[in-house]
């Protein structure tokens, strides 16, 4: 999972307000690609945020680099709607090398408990035939990964605040 920092879309009820400020350490695309490859891209890479499409050139370069390498499946989670992406050549280019885009603003009133859409108004948009919406139907609402060094990483569609008492160094939620 790659998290991008910075989002100005302002969905009410967003689970990741700490990712909204466009601040923090700046990573280069080659640096992030190298880290992803070193970790083992496995069956796929998911890019979330924050808002990946507010860094469209970097996202395009990241996806293209993976395509030229191990060619893992690439899923992009974005708050932009498909129509917004399709009418903007820069945004369209940013997801051209992805396999699946999960597109649209999060709507708390339409929250879903499983899958990658977060809320039912969001759209699975397959760019290639690699994945279908059914492939993500059983993704749980949340997941806690505890590494050998005790580091706990919380991911998923809803933060599990209060469920985990951790001494780990990194615990964060994802949308
Ligand atoms: S749900 Fe996603 S797109 Fe919406 S404000 Fe939060 S990070 Fe931004």
TrEMBL record:
InterPro entries tied to this protein: Aldolase_TIM, rSAM, rSAM_sf
Protein name in the entry: Radical SAM protein
Classification via SUPFAM superfamilies: Radical SAM enzymes
UniProt keywords, alphabetically: Iron, Iron-sulfur, Metal-binding, S-adenosyl-L-methionine
Presence of keyword Transcription: no
Alphabetized Pfam families for the sequence: Fer4_12 (PF13353)
GO terms for MF: catalytic activity; iron-sulfur cluster binding; metal ion binding
Species assigned in the record: Actinomadura verrucosospora
